[in-house]
Amino acid sequence: MTESEFEQYFTLYKETVWSAAFCYVKNAVDADDISQEVFLKLYTYSGEFSGSEHVKAWLLRCTVNRSKDHLRSHWQKYSEPLESIPEQEDTKPGDTDSLSEVFMKLSRKLRITMYLHYYQGYSVTETAKLLGISESAVGVRLMRGRKKLEKLLSEERNEYNGS
Asked: For the chain, which domains are there?
C-alpha cells in the first residue's frame, strides 16, 4: 500500500473507526488508542484489498477485535478510571447529546450491532460477518436494542416532564 493510499483511507475512515471503537469501549482516550493501533496495522499490512469497501470492512473488523482485546486486558480489568464529571445543563429528550447518552447506556453487544447496522449501513449479513456471529443473533440484537432504546428514551422523557 502506498502512502497516498493510506492517507486516503485514513481520511475516509478515521471517524468510522474511532466511532466504532468508542461505541465498544465507551472511553474517548481508549478509542483514540485503538484507532491509532488499527491504522498502524493497516499501514503495515502487506495484503491486497479488492476496493475501498473491503478496506472499510477490514478496518471495522480490526477495530472490533482490538476493542475486545482491550476490554479483556489485565490493565483494563483491574484499573479504575479517574473521572471528573462536570455539571451539565439539562437537555431536552430528543437532543443529539441526550440521544447519544441514551445510546451509550445500551449494552456493548447491542451498541456495536446497532452502530454497524444503522449508522454504518451494513446489512444484517455483513454485520454478522464483521462481528463473527450469526445473522439471527444480529436480528435479535437489533430487535432488543430498539426495544431497550425505546424504553430508555421513554424513561428520559418521563423524567424530563416530571421534574
From this structure: 1-79 (1.10.1740.10), 91-163 (1.10.10.10)
